[in-house]
Amino acid sequence: MAAKQRLLEAETEALELDARYGHLKAEAIVELAVERFRDAGGIAAISSFGADSAALLHMVASVDRSVPVVFLDTGQHFGETLEYRDQLAEDLGLENLRVIHPRQETLLTRDPDGKLHASDPDQCCEIRKVEPMARAVEPYAAWFTGRKRYQSATRAKMPVFEAVGPRIRINPLARWTTADQAAYMRAHNLRENPLVAFGYFSVGCFPCTEPVKAGEDPRSGRWAGRAKTECGIHLPGLEELTTAA
Ligand code: SF4
C-alpha cells in the first residue's frame, strides 16, 4: 500500500513540477532540481558520455560538481568514449563519477562470448544496460538525462519532469534543437566526443553504432538495419525494475 502511495505521489509531483517549471531554460531547471532533490532523497545525472553529453554535464557541474554522474559501462563501449569520459570529467571537475557495470554472473551465463548483441540485442541491452540502470538510480529520488524531443518518435512528447516508478526523471534539454546544442558547446568551449568528427552523431556501444549518412536522422546509426531504436533504459521496463527495487 505504501509503495502504491509513493507511485501516486511521484506521478503528482512530476506533473506539478512540469506544469510549474517545465517551461524554464535548461540551466534554471538543472539548478532548481539540484537544490530541490540534493538533500531530499538525492539526485544524479546519468550520462553516456556520447555525442551530446557535455552540455548537460557542464550545467550540472556549474551548480554543484559533487552531484553524482553515473556512467553505465556495458563492456561494449568504444575506447574513445571511455577516454572521453575521463577527459571530460577532468575538464568539468566532476567530483563524483560513478561507473556501473553489468552483473558478472549474468554475463557469464547469458552472454559468455560477448556476442549476444548480434543474436538478441534486446536481451543484450537488458543485461548490460537496463538492469544496471535500475541499480544505478536506486539510491536517488531523481535523475537527469540529456534526452531531447527531436531525437526520435518515442521522445517527441517527452515531458521535462516525469515519474518513473517512485522516482522523478528530469529532461532539462527536452525542448532543445541541434542548433541549441551546438551553440551551447561553442559558448562554453566544451570538449566533444572524438567520434562525432567521424560522423557518429549518436554514440552507443561499438557493435551497435555506425556513422550517420548525410541527411539522415542523428540516431539512424544506432542499431542500423534493425527495428530497435532505444536500448530500454528510458522505456517502461525500467519503470518495472525501479518500482520493484
Ligand atoms: S547497444 Fe548493443 S552491445 Fe550495447 S547493450 Fe545494447 S545490444 Fe548490447
* Residue runs with pLDDT of under 50 for 5 or more positions: none
Q: Rg, please?
A: 17 Å
Class of secondary structure makeup: alpha/beta
CATH top level? Alpha Beta
SSE order, one letter for each helix or strand: HHEHEHEHHHEEEHH
The small molecules bound here are: iron/sulfur cluster
* N→C terminal distance: 15 Å
Query: Which architecture name does CATH use?
Result: 3-Layer(aba) Sandwich
Main β-sheet, spatial strand arrangement:
3-2-1-4-6-5
As a percent range, the share of strand residues is 5-15%
* Count of DSSP-assigned helices: 9
- Main β-sheet, in a few words? 6 strands, mixed
Helix content: 40-55%
The name of the CATH topology is: Rossmann fold
Give the integer mean of the pLDDT values: 91
Number of strands: 6
Structural shape:
globular
Please identify which CATH superfamily we are dealing with: HUPs
Number of domains as seen in the coordinates: 1
List the keywords:
single chain; 245 residues; alpha/beta; Rossmann fold; 9% strand; binds iron/sulfur cluster; phosphoadenylyl-sulfate reductase (thioredoxin) activity; oxidoreductase; EC 1.8.4.10; Rossmann-like_a/b/a_fold; metal-binding
Structure description:
It is a single chain. With 245 residues, this protein is of the alpha/beta class. The protein has one domain: Rossmann fold (3-Layer(aba) Sandwich), CATH 3.40.50. 42% of the residues lie in helices and 9% in strands. It is built from nine helices and six strands, in the order H-H-E-H-E-H-E-H-H-H-E-E-E-H-H. The chain has helices at residues 2-21, 26-37, 53-63, 79-92, 104-110, 116-119, 121-137, 178-187, 236-244; strands at 43-46, 69-72, 97-100, 142-144, 161-164, 167-170. A six-stranded mixed sheet has the order 3-2-1-4-6-5, with helices on both faces. Strand 2 (69-72), helix 4 (79-92) and strand 3 form a beta-alpha-beta unit. The longest helix is centred in the N-terminal third of the chain and has 20 residues, at 2-21. It starts with a helix and ends with a helix. 42% of the residues are buried. The model has no long low-confidence stretch (mean pLDDT 91). It binds iron/sulfur cluster (SF4). Iron/sulfur cluster (SF4) is lined by residues 74, 76, 117, 121, 124-125, 128-129, 204-205, 207-208, 231. Residues 74, 76, 117, 121, 124-125, 128-129, 204-205, 207-208, 231 line the site of iron/sulfur cluster. Residues 44-211 form the Phosphoadenosine phosphosulphate reductase domain. Its cofactor is [4Fe-4S] cluster. Belongs to the PAPS reductase family. CysH subfamily. This is Adenosine 5'-phosphosulfate reductase. One of its GO terms (biological process) is sulfate assimilation, phosphoadenylyl sulfate reduction by phosphoadenylyl-sulfate reductase (thioredoxin).
